[in-house]
Amino acid sequence: MLKAINGFFGKKKTNPSFKDYYLQWFNQLKNNHLPNLRRSIHDSSIAQLSTQVDIVRHHFHSYYDALDLAATDGDISQLLYPDWRNPLEKPFLWLGDLHPYLFTNLLRSFFDDDEDNEDEESDANDTVFEKLAGGVLFSEAGELFNRPWHIVMAWKNPSDVLMGRIEQIECGLRLMVPALGLRARKAQGGFVETVAGDWARKREVASEVVEKALGSEMEELAAVFVDANRLRRSVLAEIIGATSVYQAALFLEGLAQFLVGFRDPDLVSDFLTCKTPLTLTKIS
After folding, report:
1. Widest Cα–Cα separation across the chain
2. H/E element holding 94?
3. Average pLDDT of 58-81?
4. How far apart are the C-alpha atoms of 136 and 131, rounded to whole Å?
5. How confident is the model at residue 210, as a pLDDT?
6. Residues with Cβ within 8 Å of residue 82, at least 6 apart in sequence
C-alpha cells in the first residue's frame, strides 16, 4: 500500500498535486468499491461481504496514509486549506479533512431509536447531512426493503456493548479534538508573535526571523495534521471493529455515499443557492 503511495508522491519535481491523487482515489471509490459493496450487500454470502468490507476499509486507510506522506513531503498549507474542495465539502472539514465527529454522527444516524420522534420541521427541512448520509443511501423508492432481511434489521436494537463502545469513542473525541485544535492555534499564534516581535529589526534580520518562524510553524502544523489523520483513521478502525459485518457494510456504504454526494452537481447547486446557513451538530 505505502509502496503505491510512494510511487505517486515519490519525487517532488514531478509528483502531481494531492488533488490529482484524490480524484483517482475518489473515482475508484465511486465507480468500483461502492458498487461492489452494494452488490455484496444484496446478493453475497457473509464471507464475500466481509471481503468487500475489508476492501473499502483498506481504501479509506490508504487515503489517510497518502495524506500523511503528502504532509511530510509537500506544502502542508495546501492540505490544511485545500482550495480544490468545493463549497459543499468545506464546512465538513477539520484540519484539512473530514471531521471525525462526522463518522460518529453517521453511525448514530443508523440507530432505530423508538424514543426519538422527529420534529415536524425535520420533514420539511432536511439538513445537508441527512441528504448526503441518510436519504441518499436509499435514494430509489423501496431500495432498503428490497434488501435481505438481515441487512434491513442490522441496526435494529443495537446491543448495549456496541452503544457503550460508541460512547467511549465519542468520549475520546471530546478530549482529542480540542487538544489538536489548540496545538494548531498555538503554532499559528507563535508564528505571529515571533514575527511581530522582531519586525522592528533591520529588513535582513526580519527576513531571517520570518523564515525560521515559518519553518517551525509548518513543522508543527504538519505534525498536528498527521495526528488528526491518525485520529480519523483510529475512529474508523474502532467503528469497524465494534460493529458486525452487516453493520460495518452499511456504515461504509453510507460514508462512501456521503463523499460521492459531495460531488453531486445538483446538490452543490442547491447548497450554493440556499439562503439558510449550514449548521452541523457536533461538527462546529
Report:
1. 75
2. strand 93-94
3. 90
4. 6
5. 54
6. 18, 19, 93, 96
Cβ atoms of 57 and 240 within 8 Å: the answer is yes
| Cα torsion angle, 92, 95, 97, 99, sign | negative
| Average pLDDT of the residues of the chain | 79
Mean pLDDT of all residues in 195-212: 55
Q: Which amino acid is at 226?
A: V
Residue 61, C-alpha cell as written in the block: 486507510
Distance between first and last Cα of the chain = 33
For residues 99-132, b (16+ Cβ closer than 10 Å) or e, as one string? bbbbbbbbbeebeeeeeeeeeeeeeeeeebbebb
pLDDT for residue 32? 97
**Closest alpha carbon to 139 in 60, 253, 280:** 253
